[in-house]
């Protein structure tokens, strides 16, 4: 069986846990199918719960869900802090998408240029 990359495996595990823990955000997902994958959440400590799941490579993995309490801030409310973090994440994702698009377009142009150069060389 080919080994699936760490990024893909970890992303799939996170998605499965989040789908189970927060089904209201994943209305198009079959909750029963997700529940079948979940053994149980166990309390690890006062800040975390853990779960054992099998990843796409067939390896059992330990996934932790933690609760992080943000520090109080003098310069912004809790709601403003949460929105600032959401906005920062969305901005980073948009930047990544734009870089990927630019990279894909450049790769396509470079390939076309190489093919044209090869064609020109063969025609000489």
Q: Quick gist of this model?
A:
With 124 residues, this protein is an alpha+beta fold. The protein contains 3 helices and 3 strands; from the N terminus they run ααβββα.
Share of residues in helices: 55-70%
Structural class: alpha+beta
Distance between the termini: 47 Å
Radius of gyration from the CA trace?
22 Å
The total count of helices amounts to 3
- pLDDT averaged residue by residue: 89
Q: How many DSSP E strands?
A: 3
Count of distinct structural domains: 2
Shape: flat
Give, in order, the helices and strands: HHEEEH
Characterization of this structure:
The chain is of the alpha+beta class and 124 residues long. It has 2 domains: 1-69; 73-124. Helix content is 56%, strand content 13%. The chain has helices at residues 6-21, 31-37, 78-123; strands at 42-43, 48-54, 60-66. It has a 3-stranded antiparallel β-sheet, with helices on one face. It is flat and about 75 Å long.
